[in-house]
């Protein structure tokens, strides 16, 4: 099996266009020095670099599994950026986000996915719910689908709430073996009939070396946590080991998905 190498580009943010006030992280529409527009996620917002790490890992794992994700780029914010911004809250956010942030390519004209309007086929729904159970994504519900329709295709966005074990960081091994009961609220649960059938296929797409490559994408700067007992590389290793353990025990969450589906009937 050929494994394509993952490479993320780095851009410099040149223009802050407007805040996107969905959720608590206050992302923004911004332009970069490659003349493309991006949805910019800030290290100075809400959960800080942990949300960026989750966004990066969740997005690139999804892409590796063959799901549609807007291009992710590292986005550099110069210290002079945003000084002319009139809104004090936004100015503070920009000030606290100098350095390396994360951005998603802006899908101009995309529509929010509505399960009433669009039916997702069973295999795709099963792949998406498998992904979300793997990365412990609590944020793809009917209220907030975090999916877009763009050029008649389904695109996944917003993985900043995944890997929530890293907010407490206690027993990560226990978290990795979790059945993930929150999957009962997943917007695609009714269509996800083939989770058991695609389990082996999905596991095979995430060999150890691919998980290592994905966790190696995390900038060391994002892993220097204030007050942490571990150094940056030890923290990176936990993310890697968490993913290996969770993939190896995917039957735990596959059964949870099946049980949740039975309760729908």
Automatic annotation (TrEMBL):
The keyword Transferase applies. Residues 17-255 form the HipA-like kinase domain. Keywords: Aminotransferase, Transferase. InterPro entries: HipA_2. One of its GO terms (molecular function) is transaminase activity. It comes from the Bacteria. Pfam families: HipA_2 (PF20613). This is Aminotransferase class I and II.
